[in-house]
Amino acid sequence: MLNIITLKVLSLFSWIWAFEFVFNLLKELLNIDIEVTWYSEIDKSAIKTYEKNFPWVPNLWDIRKIDTSKLEDFEILVWWSPCQDFSVSWKRKWLKWERWSLFFEFLRILKDKKPKFFIFENVKWLVSQNKWKDFETILNDLENAWYQVKYKVLNSKNFWLPQNRERVFIIGQRKDLWEFNYELPINNWSNNVLLKDIIDNEFDEKYTKHIEIIKKLYLWKRDDQRCEHEDNICHCLMNSWTWKWIVLNKDKEFVRKYNWRKLNLEELNNVKARQLTPEEYERIQWFPTWFTSWVSDSRRYSLIGNSIAINVLYEVCNSLFIYIKDNKKLETKNNETNLERYKKSENKFITSIL
């Protein structure tokens, strides 16, 4: 096999290896040797899932304890981090939250190792938090770390997934490389995949609930929290119980009468309220339906609901790797000189010569 490009990757907050799963899909397609050299994760259930699928990749564990001097060089740094600080379901406080001190750990590793590229994913609220001020801080920090940056908010429902899940992807390229003319994929696909197309006809009765649960669902003040949706695209997958329910009639059509007083018992006899199963959760994210089968149902919901939509990540990585291949060489002699100069210089000097 000729002209194979080798890309070594460090994966931070690896969770259940969404990145690694996509890398495996792209290896042969693009004729690229993508090697994940290390990963970092501390959640026990996520580690168990990761080790079942990638047992040969060593874990660096807590990102705060990573000694970069002991890491071999790599071309790409990928990471996504705890999103609670920017999620609409949490009080967003940005730098006041200890969790987001982890961003600066990512920045530390980025500055110390200086990979050619990075991929960063998080909730879309990262962009608008604190009237854009916090996002500007992030972009400035990445710029000062000597990276050119592009970003875009992508929605999984535009990438053949029956889920309304918006996430921001930030792609960075080191400044000493070629002109940064990479473009993130356009999220204008017409979605022909509906939730009712991927849910199972047969399922364990433990996921089915009785009529009293249906009443509670229809009395729930925030009816948008049920999985049913106007265009048959479910809301963003969550671990909370109110987000895991679907209410269907016998023809697998969604029941959509939000006012309990308008429902009668005859209608309720024809509907079923049940949880989405863990396998359906996996399918909605485009993971294989055995992917998290090593852990309990409650943990499966959490692992899948907090992961990255595979179809979207696939398009992002595919477009980036094609971009890298089109530029043929990852570095030139002059680029290497610039990098060495950067390593030895103070940030003020670097700013003055750019």
Task: Please give a structural write-up.
The protein is an alpha/beta fold. It has two domains: 5-191 and 308-353, Rossmann fold (3-Layer(aba) Sandwich), CATH 3.40.50.150; 196-305, DNA Methylase, subunit A, domain 2 (DNA Methylase, Chain A, domain 2, Alpha-Beta Complex). It contains 13 helices and eleven strands. The chain has helices spanning 18-30, 44-53, 102-113, 125-128, 133-144, 195-198, 211-219, 265-268, 278-285, 297-305, 310-326, 333-344, 347-353, and strands at 5-12, 32-40, 76-80, 117-123, 147-155, 163-164, 166-174, 208-209, 234-235, 245-249, 271-275. It has a six-stranded mixed β-sheet with strand order 2-1-3-4-7-5, sandwiched between helices. Residues 85-91, 221-225, 256-261 and 345-354 have low confidence and may be disordered.
- Share in helix: 25-40%
**Structural class estimated from helices and strands:** alpha/beta
Q: How can the largest sheet be summarized?
A: 6 strands, mixed
What count of helical segments does DSSP give?
13
> Order of strands side by side in the largest beta sheet?
2-1-3-4-7-5
| Rounded radius of gyration (Å) | 22 Å
CATH class call of the largest domain = Alpha Beta
Give the CATH topology of the largest domain.
Answer: Rossmann fold
Q: Quick one: CATH superfamily of the largest domain?
A: Vaccinia Virus protein VP39
Number of strands: 11
Give a short overview.
Helix content is 34%, strand content 18%.
Write the layout of secondary structure elements.
Elements: E1 5-12, H1 18-30, E2 32-40, H2 44-53, E3 76-80, H3 102-113, E4 117-123, H4 125-128, H5 133-144, E5 147-155, E6 163-164, E7 166-174, H6 195-198, E8 208-209, H7 211-219, E9 234-235, E10 245-249, H8 265-268, E11 271-275, H9 278-285, H10 297-305, H11 310-326, H12 333-344, H13 347-353
Parallel strand pairs: 1-2, 1-3, 3-4, 6-9
Antiparallel strand pairs: 4-7, 5-7, 8-11, 10-11
Helix pairs in contact: 1-11, 9-10
